[in-house]
Amino acid sequence: MPVIVVANPKGGVGKSTLSTNLAGYFASQGHGVLLGDIDRQQSARAWLNIRPPEARPIATWEVSEDYVAKPPKGTSHVVLDTPAGLHGWRLNDALKMADKVLVPLQPSIFDILATQDFLRRLADEKAVRNGEIDVGIVGMRVDARTRSAEQLHRFIEGLKLPVLGYLRDTQNYVQLAAHGLTLWDIAPSRVQRDLEQWQPVLEWVGKNNGG
Asked: I want to staple 32 with a disulfide (CB 3.0 to 4.6 A). Which of 12, 44, 63, 76 is the partner?
């Protein structure tokens, strides 16, 4: 049972966008997926509450900011959305369960500076160094051809953590989220470019985890 933790202590970088769409992908593949949320804002939980009943099911993982329980038995895939300021024992608890950690990161110098200590902490984790936990970075709201993307790559190079891909700044995510939907809940032709940008992320997530 793969557990994917989406984490970045910086707020407003796209954690919930990444979490909900990843859960939507797993659901589209027929997996029994749980979406947990230990953010006080409970963005992922609020999103699940407006998800239409005819959409592929995504279950709620009952976790709280003060206690991160193990997922219930019988779960095939888990996505955990985490809060801004994640550190200390909450981070340790999340890492104990994680098979993979996805770090959404916008390529502005302010976001990079706010995230660099967190990324170094992850890179230094024994479980990461031993290959027990994989860590990948996703550039959010960015064009891969821009100077900003180059800046992000230069920063990450020294940490030896992979940049999996870049998701563009588009209203598709905003409009779909407003209806409790993901890229995988609508006709592919409407979001073809976005689905293509997700492919390297999904390939990385699926490695050794049964897709």
From this structure: 76
